Amino acid sequence: xxxxxxxxxxxxxxxxxxxxxxxxxxxxxxxxxxxxxxxxxxxxxxxxxxxxxxxxxxxxxxxxxxxxxxxxxxxxxxxxxxxxxxxxxxxxxxxxxxxxxxxxxxxxxxxxxxxxxxxxxxxxxxxxxxxxxxxxxxxxxxxxxxxxxxxxxxxxxxxxxxxxxxxxxxxxxxxxxxxxxxxxxxxxxxxxxxxxxxxxxxxxxxxxxxxxxxxxxxxxxxxxxxxxxxxxxxxxxxxxxxxxxxxxxxxxxxxxxxxx
Length: 260
Hints:
The chain is α/β, with parallel strands linked by helices. The chain contains 9 helices and 10 strands.
């Protein structure tokens, strides 16, 4: 059930603790005449790691970007912890503070140190003091194995290190859930493992995650569920070991025969 606005008029004060972390209902998204999402419905429960796989152009990234309204859906509903975030009464910026997002590109500010990158949004969006933001930033840099690089600038880091900084930056906002949009696709192969290890640790700690990925080993080992998308639709979903080893649908079989 969709939560109703509180007497103060703020729907985010009416979080439903038993609601799915993310619930998507009949989601459609078109760019002009091109329909990219064709009626997506799915739930992500708290603590789940849902891995979304499929060919390029299948709508995976558009789906993920719709969850925190970086793309505005054409129709359908998106509920975050029971709150319909397409409700015009909902403060989208406040919703986004609950949802961390990590992109293919790292999107770090090149003129700021690692520590500066992690502190900026904490201070401007969450209103933390400089000292509190620094403490949180250092804690998360240690979590991603980069405690010794807080004074470095992004240009002096490898791609894998920059992506781990991006993850630490998202974690510093204390999100309830994390979205990863092909976080290793821009990395050299030898740098992928460190980023996946950080994500594996987050999963083990119970972080709710939606991960668009081509890393089938990660999906198999870490995922609670895998979703195969093609042509803007969910074709198949289920236990990762089952779907990846014994896909039922011909389109899933054809895709996995090329990538496994």
